[in-house]
Amino acid sequence: MSDWQRLKDDENERLLKESRTISDILFVSNVDVYRNLPSQLLQFFSWLSATLSFSFVMKTDDDCFVNLETILQCTEELHD
Fold first, then answer.
1. Helix, strand, coil in percent for the chain, rounding step 5
2. Which of 11, 27, 28, 46 is the most buried (most CB within 10 A)?
C-alpha cells in the first residue's frame, strides 16, 4: 500500500506542478470515480460559464477521435 500511496502522491505533485505552470487543469471537489462523472461535468460547465466567454464548447475524452475538420465546418455553418 505504501508503494501505491507514493505513486499517487507523485502523480498529484506532477498535476499540481503542471497546473501552476500551464494553468490547463481544473480541479473539482469530487473523488474521481465513474459515478461522480455527472457532478464533475456540472462543476466544470458551471466554472466555464462563470469564467469564460465563448460561442462553442466541446467536451471529449482521451479515448475518442475528434474530426476537427467536420467540427470547424459545422461551426462555420452556424455563423453563416
1. 65, 0, 35
2. 28
Mean residue pLDDT across the chain: 90
Nearest Cα to Cα of residue 57 among 47, 46, 45: 45
Q: Which residues contact 64 (CB under 8 A, 6 or more apart)?
A: none
Q: Return the DSSP state at 62.
A: T
- pTM for this one? 0.66
Please name the helix (run of DSSP H) or strand (run of DSSP E) that holds residue 39, with its range, or none: helix 37-51
pLDDT-based confidence at 62, cuts 50/70/90?
confident
Q: Are 48 and 57 in contact (CB under 8 A)?
A: yes
Q: Residues with Cβ < 8 Å from 35, sequence gap 6 or more?
A: none
